[in-house]
Amino acid sequence: MALTGRTALIAALGSLPVGVLAPSWAGMLAVNAPLSLAILCDYALAAPVRTLQFTRSGDTSVRLGDAADVQLTVTNPSRRTLRAQLRDAWPPSSWLPGTEQTSSRHRLTVPAGERRRLTTSLRPTRRGDRHAERITVRSYGPLGLAARQGNHEVPWTVRVLPPFTSRKHLPSRLARLRELDGRTSVLTRGEGTEFDSLREYVPGDDTRSIDWRATARQTTVAVRTWRPERDRHILIVLDTGRTSAGRVGDVPRLDASMDAALLLTALASRAGDRVDLLAYDRRLRAQVQGRSARDVLPTVVDALAPLEPELVETDARGLAATALARAPRRSLIVLLTSLDEAPIEEGLLPVLPQLAQRHTVLVASVADPHIADMAAKRGAIEGVYEAAAATQTRVQRSRTAEQLHRHGVTVVDASPDTLAPALADAYLALKAAGRL
Amino acid sequence: MSRPATSATSTAASARRLWTRARGAALVLALVLIGGLVLATMRSSDSHGALDPRSADPNGSRAVAELLEARGVTITLVTTLDEATTAADSDATLLVTTPDLLTEPQQSALRRAVTGSVGRTVLVGAGHPSLSVLAPGVTSATSVPVENRAPSCDLAAATRAGSVDLGGERYRTAPGSTADSCYPADGLPSLVRLPGPDTTDTVLLGSPDILHNDRLDQQGNASLALQLLGSRPHLVWYLPSLTDASATADTPGDDTTGNFLALIPSGWLWGTLQLAIAALLAAIWRGRRLGPLVTERLPVALRASEATEGRARLYRKANARDRAASVLRTATRTRIAPLLGVPVQDAHSSERLLPALSARLPETTADPRNLLFGPAPADDAALIRLADQLDALEREVRTS
Fold first, then answer.
1. Is B282 a member of any domain?
2. Final residue of a domain: which of B247, B267, B288?
3. For A55-67, how does the pLDDT look when each residue is reduced to its tens digit (9 = 90+)?
């Protein structure tokens, strides 16, 4: 049962005849009894809510920052026309702040036995799964004095995917990758390279790459070209522990790490390498394993979408054990974590030799530009103390990076917007050097 | 066509579920109602409260009332002031059980009615709120526990009764008055008889215990009670009640409010009442929400730089100038060492760094030794200056 503003207005107007014509209990009764009767009739004549039928259709996934349309079909099986206000409720982060009222509410009229389709446009502001909450329908009577109200549960889920803003860097990195491929002979022979083809010597080629046996068979001097070995294995490990929850700018570190992981996945799968993914804090949060080059990127995007930072200390030993179990042959292990002193020294350093023994290890970390801003502060005493504290933090980070270097680990420490290209460049450099 | 079935998606509760949900509350409500009813039945014996001549409770006064009636005294029980003043005359005793319950206008009315016209007025347990009007000249002192006390006065009734259970309020009479002061506790009497005009008098009784059923048979309680209340052939037993109309009537200012409402035309009153109904309907209209609020588990929002900012505040709080200066100096040394061609591991030894620096900047204004390896700054201004000078030095090295 719900009333409308019209009811209150009629009751307020009723004070005129009561006050002027019949200031008595009889006057009150003469105004309010018909009003009550009208309300009851209106309530009785409103189309029933609990017999309505709903079906949903539309988008099931959307990239963060884009809009998703979810259709809702309302069928009115009763013999009365449905005049209703409908609220299609979703969690608050499904809409831009302030637009929830206009986006979630609909007015509709469904004649008896017919159906109508509504479109709810979502514009999620956070990554993850959005589950539809209940649908509330307020069905007004023909006089618009009273309404029936009821709820329906019509489940639907829209998965909000990471935005992958770093995909703009992909074309330039793919061009670099083609340079690395055997089509040019700038490459030197290395551990991770394989024989590609023979071609004619041109001045400037490395004389060490002349294939004398082939030259003897031909009239011209032949050189061997090499290309990076394909079908290497890359294991991306995301640390989802407490250090990944810290926000840089307005985005958690984890989201910047995801962006970098996506660019690396896209690049490596084009380069013919196999990419696996692992998200871990104290237990396995997500994994992607053994996917073909074509569908690895969508799978990774899907696996990353619902990940949230957990406020627990990462179990580095368990992480290393899980990574080793997932990488049976020589791999590039890309660990996306933070370079904070304590977690690295107490967690990662003791287990690093196990990993570095068989695999190439790359540690990527999100640096905070705010620390750099603080380190440059001068003028007031607060500013100088902030500069000192920020400098101290940077010294600790570089010391930690130094320690990792000593174990033969490649370290990438970059701000959120440059981390993804920096990680891609580090991968290309390793590939060019044949260290995969 | 029969009523269409409820849609599968509807969350409206079925009658069975409503019953399942509500039966617990209904059970509790039923238990409370039944319990209240049983208690009310059990406690509704013929008790009419304290000092009621009809009550057989330990605190009632049926015993003394029956003793008085056996001696030919007629008792009239009244609960309102009007009844009390009409029933009492010069041949009567007026017993006021709790004079403190009377409002001030009631007390004045009672005083006007009884002075000189009622044979004897007995005020039981009269305290500060009522003494000033009902017994002018008498003030109350701190009360004492009820105990067995001796009369110690010349009042005939008291000497005949001997020691009785009395206490409660104690009274202080004006010096030089002709009042009888009996049963003193720590020097102040708990029974005072004030003679009035003609043969009338007023008796102040500090505590009501001598009239209670359970104490009547002890000591001289019965004797004193019968003598005090039975001196006239008629007894008006006044139990002041809160429902007495005279308690609220005749108070100053009452006339104006009554007249104000009466002055408004009735049309306005009824119209306002109808508007109130409209307001109620509007409240119901606005109060009904279109579905409940949707909750969501939000992620934590903490800045990654919080630990560093906290450290800066700690430095500030502890005035850690030495620490801040050493950090800034170390950072500058580490940065300029590669520019001067000094290996990084030697950057913090003054013997290696300073010669290289003076070779690079022969005529610098600053004192590099003091700047890079000097003591901690003495005050905040010195620290700020140090930071600026370190920046200037680094710039000089870079541009030279």
1. no
2. B247
3. 999 999 999 999 9
pLDDT recorded at residue A187: 47
A379 and B384: CB-CB below 8 Å?
yes
Q: How is A117-129 classified by DSSP, letter by letter?
A: EEEEEE--SSSEE
Query: Of B247, B263, B278, which marks where a domain is finished?
Result: B247
Same-domain pairing of B181 and B322: no
Residues A312-346 as b or e (16 or more Cβ within 10 Å = b): eebbbeebbebbbebbeeebbbbbbbbbbeebbee
* Interface contact flag, B10 A50, Cβ < 8 Å: yes
Domain regions of chain A by residue span: 1-161, 194-228, 233-432
DSSP state string for B177-196:
---EEEEEETTEEEEEEEE-
Number of domains making up chain B: 2
A386 contacts in chain B (CB < 8 Å)? 308-309, 312
Chain B residue numbers with beta carbons less than 8 Å from the beta carbon of A395 are 327, 330-331, 334
Kindly state whether residues B104 and B179 are assigned to the same domain.
yes
Mutate to test the interface with A, among B327, B344, B384, B386 (most CBs of A within 10 A): B327
Is residue B23 one of the residues assigned to a domain? no
CATH fold of A233-432 reads Rossmann fold (3.40.50)
Residues of A with Cβ-Cβ distance to B276 under 8 angstroms: none
Owning domain of residue B369: 313-399
Given an 8 Å threshold on Cβ–Cβ distance, is B312 in contact with A389? yes
CB A404 within 8 A of CB A360: no
User: Quick check: B380 contacting A, CB < 8 Å?
Assistant: yes
Tell if the CB–CB gap between B291 and A78 is shorter than 8 Å: no
Instruction: Match domain A1-161 to its CATH number in 3.30.420.40, 2.120.10.30, 2.10.260.10, 2.60.40.10.
Output: 2.60.40.10
- How far is it, in rounded angstroms, from Cα A323 to Cα A239? 12
- Is residue B96 within 8 A of residue B121, CB to CB? The reply is yes
DSSP for residue A136: E
pLDDT at B5: 66
Shortest distance, CA A322 to any CA of chain B (angstroms):
26
pLDDT tens digits, one per residue of B99-145: 888 888 888 888 888 777 778 888 888 888 888 888 888 888 888 88
Flag whether the ipTM exceeds 0.85.
no
Asked if residue B273 is part of any domain, the answer here is no
pTM above 0.80, yes or no: no
Per-residue model confidence as pLDDT tens digits over A81-132: 999 999 999 999 999 988 988 999 999 999 999 999 999 999 999 999 999 9
Amino acid at A163: P
Say how far residue A68 (Cα) sits from the centre of its chain. 15
**Do B209 and B79 belong to one domain?**
yes
In 3D space, the residue among B63, B99, B88 whose CA is nearest the CA of residue B205 turns out to be B99
Per-residue CA distances from A177 to A2, A266, B128, B267 (Å) = 66, 12, 104, 91
Residue B283 in domain: no
Distance between CA atoms of A179 and A170, rounded to whole angstroms?
14
Task: Please tell me whether residue B398 adopts helix, strand or coil conformation.
Answer: helix
